Amino acid sequence: MRLTFRHIFLILSCGIISAQSGVGTTTPINKFQVETTTADPASSGSASNGNLRLSGTSGSHVLDFGLSSSSTFSWIQARSKSAYGTNYNLLLNPNGGNVGIGTSNPTAKLNIVGGGVRIFSGIGNNVSRPAINTTVIGNYEIRGVGSAGTASQADGGDDGFLRLSAGGGTNSNTQASIDISGFSSVADMNSNVLFRTTGVERMRIDNSGKVGIGTLNPSTTLTVGMSDGTVSGEITLNPSNSANEGGQLTFKKSITNSTYDWTIDQVGDATSPRFRIFPGGAETNGIVIKENGYVGIGNANPTTKLYVNGDITANSVAGTSDARYKTNIKPVTGALEKVKALQGVYFNWNQKAFPQKEFGNQVELGFIAQEVEKIVPEVVTKEINNEEYRAVKYDKVVALLVEAIKEQQKQIDELQKKVKELSKKN
Predict the structure, then answer these.
(1) Domain Peptidase S74: where (predicted)?
(2) In the chain, where the domains are located
(3) Phi, then psi, of 129 in degrees rounded to 5
């Protein structure tokens, strides 16, 4: 048999392949090695680009492999062989199986070891929030697609479920997770978001936007705790880092017929730490409660259990008077002389000097506390502050008046008796 050049080439090729084979190199290291000029993946044109190409006898799609010329990365690109700007899908294990990155034993469809996942959305910090996509997945989006999409994995049924979890590989009570559900005919799964820790649901946002913390069925915009008390509804508002400012709630004014927002907060100034409820910025238009339990209405520093700057209207006011509460009980004597010494006056309040007191402008009738204090000190109180403003307990004056009337009546009775005796003599 005569050996041709073709036979010699085949014999030499088999020998080379049984060792190392090289394309573009005479010193291959691996069984098959391809060397060519490095290049980044081109996005246009159709010229030579990459180290290796897989192509078919038909069709325009090819799979190119390459080594970067600008950095140290390698690349794989499915694209059109005649127009590199036309890219095609690349499938890994399309019929099943797991894919591992950084591991030789993947245990999930995609198992990443020793790294993270980064999504570049291309959205800058001056771009508005993108609209919600339907059939198209945004380049900033991860979406769970339900079975209604069939094999095409489309969103035709608007359903879908996605869970982000950590832990719980052997014990569910060690897992933290977030569940995101699309449309579902199951009420508990219908377009809501759930948050869990230690395998227990802690918070959910239902499909109407109501938020529940510690409850599976929020009934208001924010519901905290379970209605049966198994999870208590507790909220803590921590203080501001500004001096004296405690926790705060603000209630925005109604759409119509209101002027101010309302604030509930705690303030811790040195003279009067207190809890406040007030409209706008005017604390004296609201209510304060000091740490000693003193309540002020229109007064930021009450010195009694209830201190009101302004008038009070009530059907009746009862004062504690049970005998069991009292000791050292003594009758009132000399009541008539004390009443005779008291001076009732008409007056107007000094609104200009004390605007915070919210005095009325009508003519008033009463006593001067300093004068009453000299006669009946028991019915006069002093504020616990440097000014020691006086007040009269007018209801206590009633007991003095009753005894004064009785003393006066006794005198009248005696005089009437004398008049009768004189009448008999005449």
Answers:
(1) 321-419
(2) 5-90, 147-224, 245-308, 328-407
(3) -60, 130
- Per-residue pLDDT of 25-74, as tens digits, reads 999 999 999 999 999 999 999 999 999 999 999 999 999 999 999 999 99
d(CA 396, CA 335): 13
Q: Please report, in angstroms and rounded to a whole number, the separation of the first and last CA atoms in the chain.
A: 187
pLDDT digits (tens, 9 = 90+) for 350-384: 999 999 888 999 999 999 999 999 999 999 999 98
CA distance 211 to 197: 17
Give the Å distances, CA to CA, from 88 to 16, 79, 221, 223, 394: 36, 5, 46, 49, 94
Percent of the chain with pLDDT over 90: 73
- According to DSSP, the residues that pair with 204 across neighbouring strands are 194, 212
Here the tokens at position 216 are 């599976």
Pairing of strands 32-34, 21-23: parallel
